[in-house]
Amino acid sequence: MPFVPKDVVFFPESGRWVAYNVFARTAVGLDASGLERLSRLDESASGSYKIWDVEWFSNEECSLFDPTGYRREPAKWPKERLLPEAEFMAELKKHAIIADDEASYLARFAPKRNLADRERFGNFHQRLGQHLLLERREKPAEWWLKQKFTADQGGVRKDTLYGAVQLPFLRTYFSEVLGPGSTALDIGCGNGFYANLMAERGAEVLGVDPNEEYVAFAGSRARKNARFRRAAVGEPGALDFVASGSIDFVYMSDALLFYFIPLGPKAPDLDLLLREIARVLKPGGRFASLEPHGVFYLSPWLGAPERPFTIVSEYRDKKFGTAPNPGRLLNAVLSRGFALSRAEELYLSETDAAECDARAKGFAAQFPIWHLFEFRKA
Question: Bigger pLDDT: 4 or 1?
Fold first, then answer.
């Protein structure tokens, strides 16, 4: 007999309802008759019910936009569909609002088998890749820069939390830890924006990235004391050209997560990466990792914009999330010869002139989207 999983919650929306599966990140819009039908699944019926297709991939423009995954304003909902009983039930099963049995329901919470897999939910990165390639017909590597930087890639988008939270923090942080005569290595430098920001503080900066197009672009925009080089970071010998004990500051941003929850079937070699970072650092040098928060990144933005709340649906084992929890990340680094010297959680400051929408600003003022851990060689 069909049942409503315990993972499903209901939110009122202007006389209608959103049925939302917190674990699956799936949703449908219902009216009172549809909601009432869910309360008596043990009975047969032959009516017709309205349903609204409110679920959507809300991060298609930016990975730091509202990750909740449903359209909030009923005025923006698509026109309702009036479905007969069988089609209505089929639609609810498709969106994991009801299920036939526990075993088949739980089987859907698994990695996608391939790009065309619509049955298994997969994690956020798998859903993102599927959406970009099949729906938007867009290369993920190109999308990644567009969702973070301005069209000319000369700045960070102010309508995102990258521009409202990450950039203000890093401007201050780099000024504190870098200056003339210091040396810095930016691992996973992308288009070079943050390496150039470090160079503006007077540091001699080397940016490395495995993407050849990123490195070529970064080189074309390099500041006077910044240089860029392609390196297959995480592979043996990738950083051999960097002299041992030559770097004051190693920086990684939004990249270390892939060593814990990889994009492909095999994770890069974290032991190798941390050995190389330890090798190139000077005595007393710093390794800073700015990563998506292992608890609140991708957690749903719920409640009123000025009074947000969230639901943490996973922590130790990640099925949807793509960032390791803080304890796992810390233990991995500390067990490989580093000591923690600083820890920060990043929030939206009241002084930031954010152009984000009200819900993003409200959530980021209360819940950290990133954390920074700074390490030194023990």
Answer: 4
- Strand order across the 247-253 sheet: 226-230, 204-209, 183-187, 247-253, 281-292, 370-377, 338-346
How many CB atoms within 10 Å of residue 172? 10
pTM, rounded to two decimals: 0.93
What structural domains does the chain harbor? 8-103 (no CATH), 110-147 (no CATH), 149-377 (3.40.50.150)
Mean pLDDT over all residues of the chain? 95
What would you report as the CA-atom Rg of the chain, rounded to the nearest whole angstrom?
Answer: 23
pLDDT in tens, 151-178: 999 999 999 999 999 999 999 999 999 9
Contact 70, 27 (CB under 8 A): yes
Task: Please check whether residue 54 is in contact with residue 73, taking contact to mean a CB–CB distance below 8 angstroms.
Answer: no
Count of residues in the chain: 378
Largest CA distance in the chain: 77
Contact 70, 58 (CB under 8 A): yes
Task: Give the separation between CA 224 and CA 199, rounded to whole angstroms.
Answer: 8
Distance CA 34, CA 49 (A): 6
Contact 28, 52 (CB under 8 A): yes
Burial zone of 14 (CB within 10 Å; 0-12 exposed, 13-18 middle, 19+ buried): exposed
Question: Burial level of 265, CB count in 10 A (0-12/13-18/19+)?
Answer: exposed
Buried residues in 120-145 as b, exposed as e (16+ CB within 10 A) = ebbbbbbbbbbbbeeeeeeeeeebbb
Contact 29, 12 (CB under 8 A): no
Q: Is 281 helix (H, G, I), strand (E, B) or coil?
A: strand
Q: Provide the β-strand partners of residue 340.
A: 375
